[in-house]
Amino acid sequence: MSAEKRRHVGSAAPRREDARLITGRGRFVDGVRLPGSAHAVVLRSEVPHGRVRGCDVEKARAAAGVVDVITVEDARGMELPCGGLGPDRPTHYPVLADTVRYVGQPIAVVVAETAEAAHDAAALVDVDIEPLPAVVGLETAMAPGAALLYPEWETNVGTDFPLGDAEAATTVAEHVVEMTFRLARVAPRPIEPRGVVADYDGETLTVRTGTQAPHFVRDHLAVALGLPVNAVRVLGCDVGGGFGAKEHVYPDEVLICLAAVRLRGPVRWSEAPGDHLAATLHARDATHRGRLALDADGRFVALHCDIIGDLGAHASNAGAGPLVVSAVMSPGPYRFDTVGARVRGVVTTTTPTGSYRGFGQPEVTWTRERLIDEAARRLGVDPVDLRLRNMLDAHERPVSTGMGQEYDSGDYAAGLRTLRDQVRSGHVEDGRRRGIGFSCHVEMTGVGPSMVMKAEGYLAGGFENAVVRMEPDASVTVHTGLTGMGQGIETTLAQVAADELGVPLDHVRVVLGDTAVTPYSPIGSIASRSLAVGGGAVIHAATALRDKLFTIAAHRLEVAPGDLEIADGTVRVHGVPGAEVALADLATSAWRGWDLPDGVRPGLDEQATYDPPAYLYSSGAHAAAVAVDPLTGAVEIEGYWVVNDSGVLVNPAIVDGQLRGGVVQGIGMALYEQVSYSPDGQPSAFYDLPTAVEAPNIDIVHHQTPSPVTPGGTKGVGESGTISSPAAVGNAIAAALPEIADRITATPLTPRFLHRTLTDRNR
Amino acid sequence: MSAEKRRHVGSAAPRREDARLITGRGRFVDGVRLPGSAHAVVLRSEVPHGRVRGCDVEKARAAAGVVDVITVEDARGMELPCGGLGPDRPTHYPVLADTVRYVGQPIAVVVAETAEAAHDAAALVDVDIEPLPAVVGLETAMAPGAALLYPEWETNVGTDFPLGDAEAATTVAEHVVEMTFRLARVAPRPIEPRGVVADYDGETLTVRTGTQAPHFVRDHLAVALGLPVNAVRVLGCDVGGGFGAKEHVYPDEVLICLAAVRLRGPVRWSEAPGDHLAATLHARDATHRGRLALDADGRFVALHCDIIGDLGAHASNAGAGPLVVSAVMSPGPYRFDTVGARVRGVVTTTTPTGSYRGFGQPEVTWTRERLIDEAARRLGVDPVDLRLRNMLDAHERPVSTGMGQEYDSGDYAAGLRTLRDQVRSGHVEDGRRRGIGFSCHVEMTGVGPSMVMKAEGYLAGGFENAVVRMEPDASVTVHTGLTGMGQGIETTLAQVAADELGVPLDHVRVVLGDTAVTPYSPIGSIASRSLAVGGGAVIHAATALRDKLFTIAAHRLEVAPGDLEIADGTVRVHGVPGAEVALADLATSAWRGWDLPDGVRPGLDEQATYDPPAYLYSSGAHAAAVAVDPLTGAVEIEGYWVVNDSGVLVNPAIVDGQLRGGVVQGIGMALYEQVSYSPDGQPSAFYDLPTAVEAPNIDIVHHQTPSPVTPGGTKGVGESGTISSPAAVGNAIAAALPEIADRITATPLTPRFLHRTLTDRNR
User: Fold this and answer.
1) For residues A716 and A655, what is the distance between their CA atoms, to the nearest angstrom?
2) Which range marks the domain in which residue B528 is found?
3) Is the ipTM of this complex over 0.90?
4) How many domains does chain B have?
5) A231 touches chain B (CB under 8 A)
6) 3-class secondary-structure state, position A5
7) Any chain B CB within 8 A of the CB of A140?
8) Is A11 domain-assigned?
9) For residue range A55-91, what is the model confidence (pLDDT) as tens digits?
């Protein structure tokens, strides 16, 4: 579809989800009411490490209202996948185990007629655990003589491998900036807790769960439970935020489904208030030893990152994936002679880490962009000039980064120049220290080519399917296995389909992830791929449908299909006024199987697959202006600017929302958020999140370099906001406080930390 | 698939539906429990004909628990289709009307929080109807000066047209047997009453209803309610018998859906015990003046049927369809020089008539086969010999019947000879009179070619779709828009798919009619088409899937696809032991999008359409042995034999069940069943059905002449049992009581009728 024919793509159409969500008609898991549902409570370990010697459930089983208690014996052999750490490492972990390795690990499930009865009975379960030493923190875990989580490994290092040039930036260069950076362990915090309502009728296990990837959940539930795949149905509901936390299959899902199968009836479970911080995967928590080498002219010569990530108690199904992405995306938008990384994933007695918006990219952007600012400071050059001097040229595409990525499009310098023009700094004299920080990134989006995923060891493909159906009245339904968790995919896919089919936007309905209803989506709505990859499938399916309409109309109007165009609910002969036929007329005829040219199948429903031939590289440049109160260490973000390029925008208002939300999450990481563990392995119950009060005004400018890869020219944007924002804030604070700039390396940059560091330096 | 490769097709696999149904886990509409459902009662006319002057619902509206009352004003403009009677006749009728024309016609709907409150409030509705004359019976309706249902027509004859040779059998022939026959008005009696649970959430109207045709219901509900088609979802449930009664869209469905839309919530309704006889469509009720002309040698020269059918108060969506089918199928398995018919449909102030197993074919078989027996009696020849002498030759195919039908296959004489060999008569001396009667028929099945349906004025096509999906573990799901109402379609489609895909039967799951989940089925499970047409679609889709598996396996094994075969869960190279790959391996690879040959789409799901190029003609020969007690007129059926040929049998046990059930319904028509009206238009509340006690042993022999039309060689069989059974029983009674043979013309042949007729004759 040429740009001039587009009516809906590019417009800020109101999100169709909002009427439902705002008026309380959202369909969330916990709102599902199945008559006769039992309620489950997952009993979790309160010790970080130990061997389960016994689990006496007799009292619980005898308690009023209890219908079932599930222990490790009942779930023997049920496993979920670990992201591959290497040939000597387990590929799966048990959903209930004889050894506990983190506070929050499931130990047993109590099922009762009411939630209260289940909670009361759970308190009666008597678990006897022989304690083993806690292992908290990378240094502890890697220290000689450290207690081992898996003694058979003889180390806590789960995986260790180089990528790119292992020697990068170790050779002689004029300037080498070498520092250690860390983004703290954080917890993705969707508004909606995780939840499951599972029902089994003896034939089908029907699972409603707040997931980003219903088919992924289905596939793994079937294997874990030993059910045929065609006996498991997983329905996504409205998902109240995912951010990566809901792309995983958790032991909880398997256990609640097991309870439903045993009960032959519905069982419901929702994350308890205390569960989330301990039992939902954490993220980030990686230490990067970064080395940036520059020549005398400030040209970037080499970059190397020694990445050590905390996997937690075992590899989640994301495994060391975020660490690898940190490594391969380390060059960002810049040119280096050589780039390299070492990747290590370490197990500790903490909650496993997994996916979170950005997936390794905020971490390495923090490292790279802080290194660049530090280099500029040391060289006495403007950090924006230093960046511009080293940026990849927009005209040289595709360009290989030296880390296995081939950037296809994007004008990074133009973005940064636009950003510099946008930034306005204030001049208030209030005793606070002010600074402006910049950060640039290239974002890997649109996971991804299935063959690349195979090469990278994933257990799923990266394509998307769509079925587009035009009903007899020319109303249109789009079916996709993707899910909506706030990103407006119902609206944007409708915009895409409406343009291709020449129908009003409100005639298009979008049906999202339900494994019984929608086509296969191997990995669902993750990795900034929903619109770019799923939209590609919708365009392909809608185009096939349009071609079929043209074929039928050409037969009817006795013209060539190439003479036809579609718009305003009609197919018409280009340039011949009045020579047209209504879509509803064609559609009725097609569904009746009447008046069709030879060989044309009745009906108007087309399925198409889109498997992107490459990743889609978006880019962004962020700037933050901060004011730091030296008396308290408090940081206020006074201004925030984004120039983002994620290719063609289907709905600019939705993209703005994605960027704003992501930036606020990045600010949260930079200033507030951290899951902390005591040395003896107990997680803190305290977690500080930014609110609307902490969210600055965010000015956004869009550049639109169309993707040469996707049919609609779109790229992913879901994670963009989070990737540069920690670094932009960190660089701004470093700019405001140059005397402690070399201490701005680890998040969160709390008032306490800044105040103490300033005080120490001034002492 | 060649016969020798078939493992499941042809085997009497146990019906997979039965475990669910027998253990009380059937999913019937009335078992659907949606929280907060309101209950609806449809208030119906108690007068047969009149003008509604007023309908005071204020008291009802004010009654406790009442949430809504719907009257004609609220449903203004909502209509359902009439089967076309001709250019001057209405194409639609209103769901609520200002004129009532039958007892049972809906007048208003009361919706309340409980069923009791709705019933109580319905009694408070005050309807003022100005009475008009009742018009009951064809003679009354067609008499000069009759009261008119539609004065603008100036007649009660809704349609009147000739088919074939209007002069057939009026020319001079050696022998002409001319008699008037009638099958009484009967009511299809499924075990499960009709019911609807409708829910509207502001976006989607979700309708659960016991229907044979969910898409058909969806299409017509959308039009009636003015909703976009893509906003209406209709789910079939387990349907407890259909028999044609549940192929229609009734005003009740529209009204309950309207109530749900108005309420923005769930509303439930079930046929009240008194509703069924008045508010569910009746059937048969046609009078045939038949003329059979023979030459001196007993050769059939000509056949003419003057068919007058009682349409009831208006044409149902079946319209005059059963009358037309009577006419076109009048030749049966015999050769005539000329055949013709006149078809008239007449309106009366009675419940409209519609579809019922056989759809016009039991009626005309009664006429033709009684005529033949009467001719044999008059000519003094054996009725079986007379039939054999006039049967179409098996080798002469296709053969045109002179009534627009082209029979493609079937050896009718072989069937009748086999039947004659089967029949064993008893020789008990108990004062009862004994006789054996035969009947032969050809059955039109597998409706139908979409272009023929267009030509015949249907508003839908006759194709079927299937989606067949093989999951990563090689479990298979078949999706079809057809429904199961007892005919075992879940089992037989699974057998078909299992053979095509080389998987165990229990690895195949069949998902039936749900407009949100299953592909489009224009007219659903009617007209003996589910397996023949739907199975054709399944074979096409499964074949495409198998071809794809072969393509992938050939790439993997480096052989040509033509060298491969599929069985036992593997694809293997023909004649090369060990050269094979497991289906689950291929399927996993396909769903991941890995290792696929160029141009092969990821995934393993194929949709196919099958639009049969012609009707499929099954055939049957039935014999009944009866004993009639002359003292009481009581008839006992002492033996019953069927030779049936419906092509390739997928599941002989299921076909036996279909035949047995149909025969018992035919016996019910012959001996017991009648909806009778008083002259003033009030229906009798009494309806006599056969039970297991009245069901004889039924011996069945199958001939299997494969259909040259369908991919699996199957033909339809769902209606076969009902078509010849009334005539076989009638002929047996006539044979037992030759002195009143010429009075055996109208059903039901009750003891009272037989006793009186015998007594009159002997007087």
Assistant:
1) 10
2) 3-25+450-610
3) yes
4) 3
5) yes
6) helix
7) no
8) yes
9) 999 999 999 999 999 999 999 999 999 998 988 999 9
